[in-house]
Amino acid sequence: MAPYESDDAVDAVQGDVARDEDRHAGRRKAARYAVPVAVVGVAAATIGLVPALAASGDPDLPKITAQQLIEKIAKSDVQQLSGTVRVSTDLGLPDLGGLENNLASGATKGSAGGSSADPQSQLSTLVTGTHTLRVAADGPQRQKLSLLQSGSEYSLIHDGKDVWGYDSKSDEVYHGTSADSGKDHRAEPPATPKDFADQALKSVDDTTSVTVDGTEQVAGRDAYKLLIKPRQSGTTVGAISIAVDAKTGMPLKFTLTPKSGGAAVLDVGFTQVSFARPAGSTFAFTPPKGAKVTEQKADSAARKHAPEPGEGFGKGMPGEGFGKGMNAANVLGKGWTSIATFDTGAKGGLPTGGSKAGDLGGFLGSLGDKVSGKFGKGTVFSTRLVNALITDDGKVYAGAVTKAALVKAADAGK
Questions:
Q1: Is the dihedral of CA 121, 127, 128, 130 positive or negative?
Q2: CATH no. for residue 324?
Q3: Domains: count for the chain
Q4: Which of 46, 77, 284, 386 has the fewest Cβ atoms within 10 angstroms?
Q5: Which strand (E) or helix (H) includes residue 266?
Q6: 255-294 per-position pLDDT tens digit
Q7: pLDDT tens-digit profile of 163-215?
Q8: Rounded to two decimals, what is the model's pTM?
Q9: Over 1-20, what HEC string results?
Q10: For 109-126, b where at least 16 C-beta lie within 10 A, e where not — what string?
Q11: Is residue 63 situated within a structural domain?
């Protein structure tokens, strides 16, 4: 049976979720793995009322509507877990021979005292390829994430006020405290299915279709599949599928596929998970003897401008969340076709000529497509999801939209 959509669900979701939120808000606010309040903003969306039936071979679970499944996610209060997560990212970026990672690492080292154990340096590698992570959590004050690499491992541990990063390859240690930013410092970046599901659900509004798309098993657990599809034309997003644990309501898998088809742009899922409390020793860390330890200064520029959990890689979700994650950017449009725009102040577009800057500009220009319109001329840089137009007069237009949408926005801005 295929689900159908109806606007009748709107009022019901608003009332029911508001009452549930009043009862659970205090407890969920303190829990690291509780769904943010913004998730229940999906009340304005068009939600499927009739549940889909499980396909042959999938778990035979009780019927549930999209409204009920979203409420189940919002009520989920998982605070203890451990498991293995597989992260695959395929944005269709050109192979730069590791140059992009070296640039990101170099920028971070320059601002954080040169430590290869700095989280921003290590976790930038998640933007491309396939990676295996081990994760563990015991409430909002204790988390651990380990990035397994060839012959080495990088671990990020949050234990109370201490935040430790350890790179076994270089034998370097990064140490900071939650007081560095004056906020609740969380060790783990947005790298679990729940992190991405939260961002996707924040983007759901009346430009979106939300339905239940059957059931499946993830990491040996029965799950419902929530399907999110943009209703707007002009976006590069095809669909988002979220596998929701039938028992706990926690997202176990997140898959984003582009409208162009092919492999998923982002596929994040548990391959193994347990909701038992991890051993306390999991979060204990003492720098190995002889390791180089870099202390993060509380007033460092790097910390002041460090992204909040969920920003950057995680907050680069399509929809309005994309625009909100960019500093000093205005957002044009709404929903999945929203475009972030800002002025770099750099006239003349990409540098050209014989200088090193010119050589770099020529190289970058070769990766993009030249376009023109009422706005003048510019270059569009494309991935399988996010596209960006840099005009010759220094303006930038970016979003999970087509090249034509960017040109149209630039023309209107002119």
A1: positive
A2: 3.30.310
A3: 2
A4: 284
A5: strand 266-274
A6: 999 999 999 999 999 999 999 999 999 999 999 999 999 9
A7: 999 999 999 999 998 754 434 343 445 678 999 999 899 888 899 999 999 99
A8: 0.76
A9: CCCCEECCHHHHHHHHHHHH
A10: bebbeebbbbbbbbbbbb
A11: yes
